[in-house]
Design goal:
It is a single chain. This protein is an all-alpha fold. It has helices at 3-14, 17-41, 43-50, 54-81, 88-104, 110-122, 126-149, 155-178, 192-220, 226-237, 251-258, 260-263, 267-294, 297-301, 307-314. Helix 5 packs antiparallel against helix 6 (110-122) and helix 9 (192-220) crosses helix 10 (226-237). The radius of gyration is 20 Å and the shape is globular. The two termini are 31 Å apart. Mean pLDDT is 83; it is low at 2-7 and 309-318.
């Protein structure tokens, strides 16, 4: 088969839901096997993990509360760039519901639920909201690269890396804008106040993520420093861009393992801290689900009618 046709066949196959689900299952299985094998060969780390105080877990669970607040602010700011706004209650319910779906649903479908809801209920163009999301992802990548490299690499290398991230983000956003065939329908605009808010909130999100990872690492190794946690968080955050599994399971560990020469966190500490992270996050999501259930989010947001539309949007580029 001609290489071009082979590449096209691979792309077509990769877009099929069955292939994506198989990939998710494969990554999860490989990750679980890697965890089991490592701890089977190093049982002392299991004993060490068993001695972690439950208060560390409580601390990580509580740190997710302000994180939801930041996600609500990010949604509000993204919508402000699109010339739209939601009530705070509706915004919270949508953010909470999409966070739960993003973890327990297939193929990180939370953003799809959010985008389709905004289009259906508030007539926000998918392209406008996607453009606002790309801007956010660009800032998130920039701050993550800054945290990864600052203090670990020479200033000139850090500067070049940040310039590369900013340049790639700019080119991607420019390409996306040029692909818009109905620019006159767009309500998106770089409103200074909303743009400034997006920059500040994104930085606070990366900072809070770093604090959370610092607490998790401290729980398994009291000698971990703040500088290590900063670099560790920067590396972990990049798993967001390639993740197809719940909470980037498997991908985050891989990024952290590859970047060990920068943050100097051992493999044992990486795996142990991520067990705490996932466990605490599941506990938080269960509590969040009970709260959302008590507020009748599904009925108030009219989510049921959006499921079929969401499934279609996941199969086509936004």
């Amino acid at each position: 088969m001609h290489p071009k046709r082979l590449l096209q066949a691979v792309r077509t196959r990769a877009k099929q839901p069955a292939f994506k689900h198989s990939a998710v299952i494969a990554v999860l299985l490989v990750t679980i096997i890697a965890f089991i094998r490592f701890f089977a060969e190093h049982p002392n780390y299991i004993h060490q993990l068993g001695r972690v105080s439950p208060w560390w877990i409580v601390g990580v669970v509580l740190l997710n509360v302000p994180m939801v607040g930041l996600l609500v602010l990010l949604t509000a700011t993204s919508l402000a760039l699109c010339g739209e706004r939601l009530s705070w209650k509706e915004n919270f319910l949508l953010t909470a519901y999409s966070s739960i779906v993003n973890f327990f649903g297939p193929l990180q479908s939370g953003p799809g639920v959010r985008a389709v809801y905004l289009k259906t209920r508030h007539q926000v163009r998918l392209r406008d909201y996607t453009l606002a999301s790309l801007l956010y992802y660009g800032l998130f990548a920039f701050f993550s690269a800054l945290f990864l490299l600052i203090g670990t690499r020479p200033w000139w290398q850090t500067t070049l890396a940040l310039a590369a991230v900013a340049g790639l983000s700019y080119l991607l956003i420019r390409w996306f804008i040029r692909k818009d065939k109905k620019k006159n329908d767009s309500q998106f605009a770089l409103r200074p106040r909303a743009l400034s808010a997006l920059l500040i909130i994104t930085f606070l999100q990366v900072l809070l993520t770093t604090i959370t990872y610092f607490v998790e690492l401290k729980a398994v190794n009291s000698h971990i420093t703040w500088g290590q946690a900063v670099s560790y968080a920067g590396a972990a955050n990049f798993a967001l861009f390639v993740s197809i599994t719940p909470d980037a399971i498997g991908f985050r560990e891989s990024f952290l393992y590859v970047s060990q020469k920068l943050h100097h966190v051992s493999t044992a500490n990486i795996l142990s801290a991520n067990i705490i992270d996932r466990g605490a996050y599941v506990i938080f999501l269960v509590l969040l689900f009970l709260l959302v259930l008590s507020m009748h989010a599904k009925d108030k947001l009219h989510i049921t009618g959006l499921k079929r539309v969401t499934a279609k949007s996941d199969q086509s580029p936004q």
